[in-house]
Design a protein that fits this description.
This protein is of the alpha/beta class. The protein folds into two domains: 239 residues, Rossmann fold; 233 residues, P-loop containing nucleotide triphosphate hydrolases (Rossmann fold), CATH 3.40.50.300. 49% of the residues lie in helices and 13% in strands.
């Protein structure tokens, strides 16, 4: 695999000078075409042998292209804020918008490569890293992020010679990092690790290109050619088999909404007694020392007028509002539409010791976007697996994820709509869309049942609650939150 790069091929200055003008012009033209179309973004992942001149190659790329539309994303050891979120959070936050290019140093491959280059790699850990990377890259590629990965390689002797030359002058010695000096000691292990990673994580939608790096002219030309190829030719869409969700093959999902008991009621005296007790338990739980190392996500979905707002207010009444963020989710903004679907939700995740409440959530893709035709069939079918993985990353990091579907009967909804129209304090809640959505009741119910069947997981369960009686629903929401916290903390 590395035979060509380890032979340290070179390019004369005359050959370089002959190719440079054409390549620069082609790169700029392709970059501006990407900006104009804005149908995808380009993510260039930089990796390889330390001391191979990766920084110099990327600096030259910025000179040859328009740097205003290139974002260099350099990731070192996780910051305190980054450590309080799942590992992929920092990469999601920095994704370039469609039309833009991002260059990634210190990528999601670092932990895998470090593990693979150990004297005795741990297979289970490597498999975990590899599976996470596979899902991450496939999800991005399906959402319009084109990924190319550049591995900079050279022989052990060329790396040592280059390091020696740089160290010989005060003007260049600063370019040599401690890791560069240690390459010769573990060169073979690094090569073995790189080969394993490239062989096993080299799908058509996120391919690796090996860049011979002993000669600066060869390195620059090969880098530019790889980027030009990516700008001019879009990568294929990931295979559908990458996205699997529980029950995806089912033709018909169980009708959980029809099986609910909508008649259970709670009288006012019992309601106020239970409400106060549960709010007190919730308040103590989220103020405990144990919760400081956790975070809590509450996602509320359901039919219009099912009482999401009222349930959320009873929850927040027990919380210190300095500890909680409430996110009312509506149609994505123009900026959000220029990024992958889950990007806007990754940016709203809570740090440790905090709570995020979503009034509507990432499930919009498999609900309103599915029913109204805003998402293609391929997009919303793929979303089940993407959402399950998104939630799994949160719970693996210690976040408690609870999801509530608040269900109401058509008759009760109609009565509440009329009440809203008559009330000067509530008529702002009723919109033409609410009435129009009633005409698609069956389609929304079918989408909800599919969603429940495919995303009700042990680590992020759905709690489906009939809300014809608001008191019963609010108490039931609080009971589930308190039970989950007491079980976990």
């Amino acid at each position: 695999m590395f035979a060509d790069a380890q032979s340290d091929p070179s390019l004369s200055k005359e050959e370089f000078d002959a190719q440079e003008p054409r390549l620069r012009a082609a790169l700029l033209k392709a970059q501006y075409r990407l900006l104009e179309r804005a149908d995808r973004s380009l993510l260039i992942v930089v990796s390889g042998i330390d001391g191979a001149g990766k920084g110099g190659a990327i600096n030259l790329l910025n000179e040859w292209m328009d740097p205003r539309h290139i974002h260099t994303l350099a990731f070192g050891a996780p910051t305190f804020d980054e450590q309080e979120h799942p590992p992929f959070w920092r990469y999601w936050n920095e994704l370039p918008a469609k039309g833009k290019t991002g260059i990634v140093f210190g990528s999601w491959y670092v932990p895998l490569l470090l593990e693979a280059s150990r004297k005795k790699p741990r297979p289970r850990r490597m498999t975990t890293y590899a599976e996470a990377i596979t899902r991450f890259e496939a999800g991005l590629a399906a959402e319009g992020v084109q990924i190319i990965k550049l591995w900079y390689h050279l022989s052990a002797q060329a790396q040592a010679d280059r390091t020696k030359v740089l160290l010989s002058s005060p003007e260049t010695a600063w370019q040599v990092k401690p890791a560069d000096r240690k390459v010769h000691k573990k060169y073979d292990r690094i090569c073995r690790a790189g080969q394993q990673v490239i062989e096993h994580l080299n799908p058509p939608h996120a391919p690796w290109t090996i860049i011979p790096s002993a000669d600066e002219h060869m390195r620059a030309i090969r880098t530019a050619q790889a980027v030009q190829q990516a700008l001019q030719h879009r990568s294929p869409t990931p295979r559908a088999q990458v996205f699997n969700a529980p029950g995806l093959a089912r033709r018909h999902s169980p009708d959980r909404l029809a099986q609910l008991d909508y008649h259970t009621k709670l009288d006012k005296e019992d309601y106020e007694s239970e409400l106060g007790l549960l709010q007190g338990q919730l308040a103590r739980a989220v103020r405990s020392d144990a919760f400081r190392e956790r975070s809590l996500i509450l996602a509320f979905e359901g039919q219009d007028a099912a009482g999401k707002g009222g349930a959320i207010r009873r929850v927040t009444h027990a919380l210190d509002l300095r500890q909680v963020d409430i996110h009312p989710i509506s149609a994505p903004t123009p900026d959000e539409l220029m990024h992958p679907y889950l990007w806007r939700f990754w940016r709203r995740l809570p740090r440790q010791g905090r709570i995020a409440i979503f009034d509507r959530s990432w499930y919009g893709r498999v609900l309103v976007e599915r029913v109204e035709g805003f998402a293609s069939t391929a997009d919303w079918r793929r979303a089940y697996a993407e959402i399950n993985d998104f939630e799994r990353q949160q719970t693996d990091h210690g976040t408690i994820v609870l999801k509530f579907w608040l269900a109401i009967t058509p008759e009760e909804q109609l009565q509440r709509f009329h009440e809203r129209e008559r009330s000067p304090f509530k008529n702002f809640k009723i919109t033409p869309d609410d009435w129009r959505n009633r005409e698609k009741w069956k389609q929304y119910a079918s989408a909800a049942n599919d969603m429940l069947a495919r995303t009700d997981t042990e680590h992020a369960p759905w709690h489906v609650i009939g809300t014809n009686d608001k008191r019963y629903a609010r108490v039931h929401v609080l009971k589930n939150i308190v039970a989950a916290l007491e079980q976990t903390l």
